[in-house]
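Ticket reopened. Same input as before:
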Amino acid sequence: GKKQYDREFLLDFQFMPVCI
Amino acid sequence: AKGLVFEMVEKHPLQNRWALWFFKNDKSKTWQANLHLITKFDTVEDFWGLYHHIQPASKLTPGCDYSLFKDGIEPMWEDDQNKRGGRWLVTLAKQQRHTDLDHFWLETLLCLIGESFERFGGDICGAVLNVRAKGDKIAVWTCEADNRDGVTHIGRVYKERLGLTQKVTIGYQAHTDTASKSHNLTKNKFVV
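Engineering reply: fixed in the latest deploy. New output:
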């Protein structure tokens, strides 16, 4: 399906540490 | 550390891969030579990694631009995906650089990568931020200026997401009109 993300969902990831 | 649970989580894929471009005005070079691709990303996590790595919009030198476009579309009118299109233009007053610019630009980016325009998401090409001494501008570019349903839907959603009041209007201009006229004479094809 289409990957739609609302702003709150996206903002939840703002300061999440991630391995790059 | 007893009781701690470490989860292995995959990154969250976006619907589209996006390219971030940076333009720095150097009058000794051509317009195209001043345009640089910074990077491409296609996950939520990589978007934030990039966002926090670069200067916020309000800290850019006047004359600079950021552009976020779908992979494969260059941030210029001449691109095949842009040439029949246009832009919803948000013009900021000088003092709004310190109050609204960063918020508006982030909201614009989130609208794009989160696919906020629903069934008209396919009309979206990208967004452009111009930092200018006389007043900053943000625009959402779409691919087909004559697609009234798509353009007006995108404009309404975008205006709401920016939190603009009913007293404020934003206009949509076809690139062909912008290219052929001086900027302050370009007529709005649609207004919301």
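The mean pLDDT of chain A is 86. Residues 4 and 10 of chain A are 10 Å apart (CA to CA). Please confirm and we'll close it.
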